[in-house]
Amino acid sequence: MKDVLISEAKKALKNAYAPYSYFKVGAAVLMKSGKIYTGTNVENASYGATVCAERVAIFKAISEGESEILEIAVVTETEEPSPPCGICRQVIAEFSDDAFVFLANTKGDIIETSLSKLLPMAFTKKDLKNK
Ligand code: THU
53 in ligand 1 pocket by Cβ < 6 Å? Predict the structure, then answer.
């Protein structure tokens, strides 16, 4: 699904709303149901209200009744593929066991990694049960 997911994220990137940073990001998540959801970063004049592309895609999926992320692709227009921010890693961890993560740029470079590599020793719901 890697190529499809990256191409969906690349298509989504065109809708990125980034009038402040000019840093456009597109994301696509493959859920356990087999469905793909896309997202872009959505910035705000009150900068802290900005939401990353990964979280927009994930929240779209979860709010449509999905439960588990299998794979996620992130596309940027950068020289090298860009990694997801820490908050997005934490949000991916909430909804996946160990998702495949594909980082790509619009030139076609791809880095394949996984959530456990990006967020080792993640704090998750299992830790809350460990009282
Ligand atoms: N951004 C994302 O969409 N995903 C990330 O993982 C890193 C950062 C966005 C947020 C903001 O609109 C812009 O990139 C610059 O930080």
Answer: yes
